[in-house]
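testing teh design pipeline on a random one, pls ignore if ur not involved
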């Protein structure tokens, strides 16, 4: 065990690849907030580490002060910041009333709020004044249709301005939003929406990807028939196949029927629901994770303003869909008055530089994407800086999976040398981040810069002890406002408790395997439920993926561990099946033994035609593991991007141990 720990520490020696200038550091919103804390509480703080330690040790003082500092618009008073410290079920700022949409629309001016674009180019620009007017019309429509506080409104929609307008209209009434992207299958849509009984459905009947138009007319008709709770529906008709759906109103028609007037924002409690997101559901029915109005606002503003240094002057882009929490996170930037670039389509169409080009087209300052996209750009050998100016770009955000050291090298060599690259990690569960960027700190190769301010995040070893410079389970030791208020239809909190509190009493267990450095940085090593446990030594999947996927012939990979036989199986997606040979397998095993350890070395290596992912781009190790352990009943096929991919693994299983490879 001791030797393994030493090896791990050597692997994680990180180099500084970017540092903020002294002036940028001291003028950042994080530094200004720290100074405000110093002045208000008459304490001494000289670093982010000290600020974060104070915030975690004084949770009520920190969250209470930041609530005031954030300038969130609210009414009422509260006597306690939090009702209790026992999780789940903590109530925050009881007595306070507020409205999410009102906070997002407080800048009622001519500043550009949304730039709407797709594969074909720019669709249009909307100012904050125009956005408010559009939300007003949609809110009037919804109110006339009987939508009121607490009702659910669902959407099968693309990432476009119209979807954001409708969401804000829903939020203005105190109703509850929930959405998925149109590429979801019928079963996946219904397994989510049936749980929450929506009264209204916003929908598209087609979407475009890589220049092709995909019809979902039959799917939408089936969904409308199956959702018996639906009382009204709206078709997004800017690009549609039909416009004669039973009782559906065209989105464009709303603006013929209503004229803008002052919005009557419905005051709701801090802890009232804003929207329902869903777990991936790879091993059962998706959990309906319900987030509060106040928790979302305070956390998103904190993350975006303090950690991302977002201001009204920024142009903010995130490549996302309406089924990923990053869509919800992006919308919240309206509360800061920034300009959002909203894009729908394929990232590499019509050419490999297409999404990177958006930076120059719209002078984007904060560019958000996935680690998979950055790694794909590396594999495509895209030399972005040779083709684009990128002078506006100051921050790149990456999430969805670990960002490898080589990906950092790629960005600083072939995208932009003087840019802050912030790998961020959290999840749908908290609709935010446990760890992310920080304008006061350097970027270290392969690391997330810091733990989120006020989040007492630790890495626990197998004995439940906090550890540093070693691998452990990600836990959060105290309540934070953006934890879910509940799971929908989970009155006794049994699903909630089993999901996050089944391992440590009153401590949130996130099921991520992480490594926290003594300098406060963090590495995500993969899901702990997919962690490989060999002879009592836990190995993060990210360690293997980073090494394997850096090899020239390898496009992607997946690894599982069969506990009963202590067998590790590695699946590799190669440029060509012809590249797979006995020599290749031996070379790969030798590489793993040399660069990682003999414990990391797989017993079997198989070539595959595809790697399974969820619809939100998460690699699905558990689904493959269930195939090889005769537990296929646990797999929720509807959560997968392409369920047919699993057929290849079933075929491999039939002959897996016939011949040792």
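output:
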């Amino acid at each position: 065990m001791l030797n393994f720990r030493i090896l791990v520490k050597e692997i994680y020696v990180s180099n500084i690849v970017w540092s903020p200038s002294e002036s940028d550091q001291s003028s950042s919103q994080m530094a200004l907030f720290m100074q405000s804390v110093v002045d208000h509480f008459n304490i001494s703080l000289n670093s982010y580490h000290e600020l974060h330690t104070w915030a975690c040790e004084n949770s009520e003082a920190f969250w209470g002060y930041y609530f005031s500092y954030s300038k969130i618009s609210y009414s009422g008073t509260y006597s306690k910041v939090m009702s209790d410290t026992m999780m789940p079920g903590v109530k925050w700022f009881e007595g306070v009333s507020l409205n999410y949409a009102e906070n997002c629309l407080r800048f009622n001016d001519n500043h550009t709020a949304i730039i709407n674009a797709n594969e074909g180019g720019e669709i249009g620009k909307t100012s904050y004044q125009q956005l408010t007017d559009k939300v007003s019309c949609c809110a009037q429509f919804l109110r006339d249709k009987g939508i009121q506080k607490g009702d659910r409104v669902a959407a099968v929609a693309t990432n476009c301005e119209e979807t954001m307008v409708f969401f804000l209209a829903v939020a203005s009434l105190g109703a509850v939003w929930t959405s998925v992207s149109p590429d979801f299958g019928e079963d996946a849509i219904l397994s989510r929406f049936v749980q929450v009984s929506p009264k209204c459905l916003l929908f598209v009947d087609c979407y475009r990807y890589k220049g092709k138009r995909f019809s979902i007319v039959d799917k939408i008709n089936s969904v409308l028939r199956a959702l018996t709770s639906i009382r009204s529906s709206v078709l997004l008709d800017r690009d549609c196949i039909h416009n004669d759906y039973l009782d559906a109103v065209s989105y464009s028609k709303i603006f013929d029927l209503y004229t803008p007037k002052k919005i009557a924002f419905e005051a709701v409690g801090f802890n009232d629901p804003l929207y329902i997101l869903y777990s991936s559901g790879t091993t059962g029915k998706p959990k309906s994770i319900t987030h509060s109005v106040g928790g979302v606002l305070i956390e998103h503003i904190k993350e975006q303003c303090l950690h991302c240094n977002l201001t009204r002057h920024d142009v903010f882009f995130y490549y996302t869909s309406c089924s990923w929490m990053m869509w919800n996170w992006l919308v919240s930037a309206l509360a800061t008055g920034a300009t959002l670039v909203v894009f729908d389509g394929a990232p590499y169409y019509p050419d490999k530089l297409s999404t990177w080009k958006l930076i120059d087209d719209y002078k984007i300052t904060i560019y958000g994407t996935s680690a998979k996209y950055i790694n794909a750009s590396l594999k495509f050998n895209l030399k972005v800086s040779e083709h684009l100016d990128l002078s506006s770009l100051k921050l790149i955000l990456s999430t969805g999976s670990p960002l490898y050291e080589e990906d950092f090298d790629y960005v600083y060599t072939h995208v932009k040398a003087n840019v802050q690259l912030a790998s961020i990690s959290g999840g749908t569960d908290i609709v935010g981040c446990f760890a992310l960027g920080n304008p006061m700190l350097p970027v270290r190769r392969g690391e997330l810069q810091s733990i989120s301010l006020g989040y007492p995040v630790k890495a626990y070893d197998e004995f439940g002890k906090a550890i540093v410079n070693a691998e452990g389970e990600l836990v959060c030791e105290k309540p934070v406002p953006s934890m879910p208020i509940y799971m929908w239809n989970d009155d006794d909190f049994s699903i909630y408790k089993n999901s996050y509190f089944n391992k440590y009493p009153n401590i949130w267990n996130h099921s991520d395997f992480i490594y926290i450095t003594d300098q406060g940085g963090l590495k995500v090593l993969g899901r702990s439920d997919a962690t490989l446990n060999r002879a009592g030594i836990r190995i993060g999947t990210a360690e293997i993926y980073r090494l394997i996927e850096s090899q020239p012939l390898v496009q992607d990979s997946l690894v599982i561990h069969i506990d009963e036989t202590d067998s590790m199986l590695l699946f590799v997606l190669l440029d060509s099946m012809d590249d797979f040979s006995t020599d290749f397998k031996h070379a790969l095993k030798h590489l793993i033994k040399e660069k990682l350890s003999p414990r990391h070395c797989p017993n079997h290596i198989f070539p595959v035609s595809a790697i399974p992912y969820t619809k939100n781009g998460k690699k699905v190790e558990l689904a493959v593991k269930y195939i090889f352990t005769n537990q296929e009943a646990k797999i929720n096929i509807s959560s997968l991007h392409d369920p047919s991919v699993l057929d290849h693994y079933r075929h491999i299983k039939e002959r897996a141990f016939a011949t040792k490879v």
